[in-house]
Amino acid sequence: MPISLFRWSRTILLTAGALFLAYVFLQNNLPLAAVWESSALQTFKTMFISIILEAIPFILVGVVLSSILQIFVTEQMIQRMIPRNPLLGILFACLLGIIFPVCECGMIPVVRRLIQKGMPVYVAITFILTGPIINPVVYAATYMAFRTHPDLVYARMGLAFLVAASIGLILHKTVTKSPLKRSSTSFHVIGSSHTHTHTHDHNHDHHHHGNKISSMLSHAAEEFFEMGKFLMFGAMLTALIQTFVVRESLVTIGDGAIISHLFMLGFAYILSLCSTSDAFVASSFLNTFSKGSLLTFMVVGPMLDFKSTLMLLTVFKKKFVFVLSLLIAILTIAGSMIIEHLYF
Amino acid sequence: MELQRSKTSHYFLRACILLGFAMLIVYLAKTDRLVYYIAPHMQNYVKYSSVLLYVIAIYQIYLGINSVWGKKAEPTCDCAHPTSPSRFKNTVAYSLFIIPLCLGFLLPSTAMSSSLADKKGMNLSTNTAAKNINKQLAAAGQTDNSATLTAATTSAAASPAPAPTPTPAATPTPKTNTAATPPTDEQLKEMFKAPDEFNEDFAKMGMILYKRDLITVKPEIYMEILSTIDLFKEHFIGKKIELTGFVYREQDLRSDQFIVGRFAVSCCSADASPYGVLTEFATANHFAKDTWVKVTGTIENGNYNGNDIFTIHATKVDQIPTPKTPYVYPNFDPIPELKKQ
Questions:
Q1: Looking at the partner chain, which of B55, B114, B152 has a beta carbon nearest the beta carbon of A286?
Q2: Is residue B157 one of the residues assigned to a domain?
Q3: Which DSSP letter does residue B213 get?
Q4: Contact A39 B52 (CB under 8 A)
């Protein structure tokens, strides 16, 4: 079931996007002919290209850093550093992203291996949740996007920390059995060709320095395309919304308290943006949505989205993924509503 | 062998796409078009990434050539993301990259214009925007007054915000203040008293601007000057002003009116917000929308859609070519720029 889901992920993603757009179009009684009006096409182009260009430096930094870490830092090195005390372990996992900034897509295979090698589940999940948010690259990107609203940058980091730490604690208390799927199929075989048989071991072939750099470069390219296609799709969808949707019609959604949070949650889920670039998309909605709902967008997005759910399902049991998603959604919305109430 | 061939084409296709993005950035930078997409303070990062894209692309070509000769390519590490065997999925994935490249190279780059301002909603009162943000910042305990000038606003058009009220401390001045004897520094300080700590920069700017015979709204501090005038509107009535922007119209404007607008951008064009000043000119309808104009006139009190705003009674409107930098950017230290004049 999860395997076929993963296989269909792009189709599902595209269909969901198309349905969402259809909804938006119908909502505003927009004539579809307007798409071909040249000024609209121009606007679309400007939006589309500008989101991509803005995100490219950040996605490249993310891809290169993660490649460096994947190749130069072994899991054993990280495993040795995990504290035994659960509270310290959770704290450690929250801050691990600072030295190990991997995007959410690169994260799940790594974490699965860590669990198999004996990393406690609650530490691993906390790391999956905070790693893509509490790290220097995402901090820089968010700071750039919200230069005029630094409070939102701190709120994003803080809320991510709180949500992940509470989920870590809950899991520590409740999870006793391994949530990993028993005969978890090798991650790489899923939906893949059979050309790659990854029996290659890290430790014996990477002694030459040049070899490491070249495998880093090839890994960077792989990851650029892996992440890039979701970014391109997200940018396209955002550009279409910006081009054709009158802001005032969104304001009506943006006004409702819980509705706007739920809307932004769904939006983040569908867009499946990379955490290094989602802040720029969020900042473009600053005029339309409340800061609290943007906070929801930026905290939920990296923790829970379409592509990561599909990847989680290939590794963890269905029930576990479902409960985890529910916890993320509830805690984030509650947290950002409280922060909105107190600080914004 | 079949698989090997498909891998080869993957390498070359990827190299082409990566080179395409690198070239797109170089092309836009060389033709001075990058400014249509990215704010100046971000442009260097984008330029550097073109170099990195280039390096990664070259390595893909190298891998491609290796696999053509049947050589076993570099062992990819075991975290590599495998390529999909499905032709359909590959087509979809790669076309997602090729579409923006085609758009970027084939369509001409143009500045954002009226059609987008329609969607985003033109803001005619910069001050209302600044005030909203001030309130939020004050609540958050922020003391960084640089944030007052963000391009963001809870759309003033959507919810008619209360008109900016004159500060109680301000003494009403006669409308013909150009003819009156210049006020002393003490009087100026009294006139331009910041309503709160976030507006102190505006108060200082107000004092400098008030002494000028002609207020030139420089693009470098466009938002800042307009906010100052808006905040201390009553002191600037009758002053001469000069500004540039594109012509924008809303449905309920009279035929002798148009709005001189500019897009304020903080990072990339996706976060742009349009700001404008309502202008009255006898032959306003001779100017097509999106024409770039330089307007000279006097500041007047006005009202639009229930909001008290300042308007310009234009004495001269000249058509100008689209400026090299069509957008305006928030300036966090506006006073030195203002004094430069």
A1: B152
A2: no
A3: S
A4: no
Residue-wise pLDDT tens digits, A34-77 = 545 567 788 889 888 988 888 888 778 777 877 776 677 676 77
B99 and B144 share a domain? Answer: no
285-344 in chain A: CB under 8 A from chain B? 286-288, 291, 343-344
All residues of chain A having their beta carbon less than 8 Å from the beta carbon of residue B130 are none
Q: At residue B274, what are phi and psi to the nearest 5 degrees? A: -85, 135
Reduce the DSSP state of residue B10 to 3 states and report it. helix
Confidence of residue B166 (pLDDT cuts 50, 70, 90): very low
Partner residue opposite A148 with nearest CB, options B63, B80, B150 = B150
Rounded CA-CA distance B188/B126 in Å is 23
List chain B residues with CB under 8 Å of A193: 3, 6, 82-85
Residues B294 and B324 occupy one common structural domain: yes
- Amino acid letter, A290: S
Residues 6+ positions from B222 with CB-CB distance below 8 Å? B243, B262, B264, B275, B328
CA geometry: angle B337, B339, B340, nearest 5 deg: 65
Say if CB A305 and CB A163 are below 8 A apart.
no
Q: Rounded to an integer, what is the distance from CA A54 to the centroid of its chain?
A: 17
ipTM comes to 0.77
Best of A9, A107, A148, A253 to disrupt the B interface (most B CBs within 10 Å) is A148
What gap in Å lies between CA A39 and CA A36, rounded to an integer?
8
Q: Which residues of B2-13 are buried (b: 16+ CB within 10 A; e: fewer)?
A: eeeebbbebbbb
A256-276: pLDDT as tens digits: 678 888 888 887 886 666 676
Domain boundaries, position B213? 114-152+163-339
Tell me how far apart the alpha carbons of residues B241 and B234 are, in angstroms, rounded to a whole number.
15
Residues B168 and B278 occupy one common structural domain: yes
**Which whole-number Å values give the CA distances from A102 to A59, A64, A166, in the listed order?**
11, 10, 22
Asked if pLDDT for residue B258 goes beyond 60, the answer is yes
Distance CA B207, CA B317 (A): 27
Nearest-CA distance B245 → chain A (Å):
18
Residues B51, B121 within the same domain:
no
Number of domains in chain B: 2
Task: Report the alpha-carbon distance of residue B256 to residue B118 in Å, rounded.
Answer: 20
